[in-house]
Structures are given as C-alpha cells and as structure tokens.
Amino acid sequence: MVNNKDKIIDNRYLINYDINFEKIRLIDINGKQLGIFYTKDAIKKYKKEDLDLVLINKNINPPICKIINYNKYIYNKNKFLKNLKKKQSFIQIKEIQMKLNIDNNDYLIKLKKIRNFLNKKNRVKIIIKFSGREIVHNSIGFSLFKKIYEELDDICKIHFISNKIEDKQIIMILSSKN
C-alpha cells in the first residue's frame, strides 16, 4: 500500500482512492487487459493482492488503470534516474593564460598543467594575451599555439582555434583524444 510520502514524490499519477471515475479499463501486473470494471470492484481487486491501482491514461473513455506495487515502482524509477545521473559526465573547460613573451621554464610549467588537465578528460582553453605593440606580431602567437600542439599531439586534438585577434587575445581549445 502507498503512504502519503510516496504521493508527494511523484504526484503525476492518481492512485487508489484519488481516482474519480465510475468505470475504468483494468490492466494487471503482467500487462494483460482484464476488462472494464467499476472503480469499486477494481479497488477490491487490488486490495486482495495488496497492490495499488494507478491511473495510466485518463484521456481515453474509459480511463486505463494498472495494478502495480506503487512503492516498488517509485523505488525503481528513482533508482533508474539516479543511475542516469551517475553515468553523465560533465566536461569542464580549464583555462590557461600566457603572454607572448613567456619564459621557457614558465612555458614548461604551463605545458605540464595542460597535460594534467587533458589526462583528466577536461578541455583546456589556452589564451595568449597581447599587450601594447605585441598585436603586430600575431604570427608569433599562432606559432606558440603550434608549438604547444606539437608537444601535446599524442594526447589531444584541437577543438577550436581562433583565426584572428579578438580583445587583444587569441584562443585555442584542446580536448583529449580518448
């Protein structure tokens, strides 16, 4: 039988005494159609089996009701939804910013961070910022992108690369190959 807590969990279904129709088409647990019954007779039927009467479709005349164990149904439904959430993977975009005149040691540290992010299946957004007159040398920025990709091409692929400078920066997004 159903307690009030279960009604609150899933209020899309009318169950047991909430069904306000005189006649209903009844379906048993196995999906076999039992025929058209008065609601009172159907209530007697599910009480004998200690199950619940659930309104499936109220738009048909007579409406369709099914005899099921409502608590078990809600439990299985919640378990299924929980498993779906568990299987979802969220892709995070990590951001690394560099200047055009980055020192070699700083470059190696940034490269190591990028490699770690890619190994964790995250996308990496690499931003090269230009300041002052550096904008004139945009080819150096794109060659830096090329250098980064050549060192990481074993574990990543280019997801996006900007072809022009926007807001004094260029962007490349890498994602892992797996």
- SS element count, helices: 5
The fourth-level CATH homologous superfamily of the largest domain is Translation initiation factor 3 (IF-3), C-terminal domain
In total, how many domains does the architecture comprise? Answer: 2
**What is the level-2 CATH architecture name of the largest domain?**
2-Layer Sandwich
CATH topology of the largest domain: Translation Initiation Factor IF3
Share in helix: 25-40%
In total, the number of strands is 8
In terms of quaternary structure, the protein is single chain
Q: Tell me the name of the CATH class of the largest domain.
A: Alpha Beta
What kind of sheet is the major sheet? 4 strands, mixed
The percentage of residues in β strands lies in 25-35%
The pLDDT mean sits at 83
* Global Rg: 31 Å
